[in-house]
Amino acid sequence: MIRSKRLFVSVILLCTSVAANAQQTDKGLKDYYKTLFPVGVAITPRHLQDSATASFILRHFNSITAENVMKMEPIHPEEDRYNWGGADAIVQFATENGLKVRGHTLCWYNQAPKWMFYDAAGKLVSKDTLLNRLRKHIHDVVSRYKGKIYAWDVVNEAVSDHPNEFLRNSLWYQICGEDFIAHAFRYAHEADPNAVLFYNDYNTEDPVKRNKIYRLLKKLRDANVPVHAIGLQGHWSVKDPSSTSLAAAIEQYASLGIKIQITELDVSVFTNNKMPEQRNFTSEQELLQEQQYTMLFDTFRKYRQHITGVTFWNLSDRSSWLDNFPVRGRKNYPLLFDEKLQPKKAYWKVIDF
Ligand code: HXH
């Protein structure tokens, strides 16, 4: 009797530990960062139609962003027509599975529809017309997902890369001057006063661009424009940024009293724009990438008070926008998961703290 009771107890303990181990191995990236910040990923609606990909998303991430389908041109291809299908599917998946959604993006010079800027005669529209169109677009999109999308990249990439130019010479700027930026934030805030509104850009660690972005955000904040946070895209490489320039950028933006997210993280294994001799992921790239990811997440954890989210731009090395940019057809290996969706060495470093 005593023996069988002991056996019973051991069987129960064994089962519990098997279950605990299963739990352990089921843990995903998001679980290690649970108390720090949400970990997100950019996806396409097609990912959700494949159950293995959908469960991979749910295991590792607790926030999603549409890589393309919420951008101006795809979602609003003609003045009187919206394409809601893809965006609705992504928001529905998030709602059903308890994921956060970051909206991307409401006002950008790229992937913006031509009709926005031209009249029926093919001439550029007036500032007044363009701002009315922008207001309507932002109101329609933000209202549709009010309460379901918690944060929006309102203005993307408005600052110039040229050292002697402040704002990018886009059609937005040519027609409206810098006013379009403040207006875009005000329209988004009217449509959803609870949404966290972001200015989002790349090369945000470059000292010259960093000061321009700081100047823009300072001006907007001083004018009471509802800009609440900055998105550092985080399209980085194994060599860039350095930990000092990343820390300097985070500290400078945080000094404005705004929150920071890394919105489009990937770490390119290349540091030039040439086609490599070999197509494979080399062990040298693997090591440099592991070191860079370690530094990046060490820094994110150090600045956790300011950082409210980290989102990867694509799921795994199976497919990344960097396979075609800046060199068409150059296979890149920028993410934490390999082509079989298995964790890479960099992954084990990122969760080891
Ligand atoms: C991001 N832009 C976008 O925010 C995102 O929506 C898109 O899916 C992928 C990347 C990054 C980017 C910015 C500029 C650019 C290419 C990508 O083009 C140039 C970069 C440097 C010099 C000239 C052009």
What does this molecule look like?
With 353 residues, this protein is an alpha/beta fold. The protein is built from twelve helices and nine strands. It has helices at residues 2-26, 29-32, 51-60, 72-75, 85-97, 127-144, 171-176, 179-191, 207-222, 243-254, 283-302, 345-350, and strands at residues 39-43, 63-66, 100-107, 151-156, 196-201, 229-232, 235-237, 259-268, 307-312. Helix 11 (283-302) links the parallel strand 8 (259-268) and strand 9 (307-312). Helix 6 packs parallel to helix 8. The chain is globular, with a radius of gyration of 22 Å. The model is unreliable at 11-23 (pLDDT under 50).
Keywords:
353 residues, alpha/beta, eight-stranded parallel beta barrel, 12 helices, 9 strands, globular, binds ligand HXH
Shape: globular
> N- to C-terminal separation?
47 Å
Total strands: the figure is: 9
Helix amount, in percent?
A: 40-55%
Low-confidence stretches: 11-23
String of helices and strands: HHEHEHHEHEHHEHEEHEHEH
Structural class: alpha/beta
Q: Which molecules are bound in this entry? A: ligand HXH
Radius of gyration (Å): 22 Å
Instruction: Give the neighbour order of strands across the main sheet.
Output: 1-2-3-4-5-6-8-9
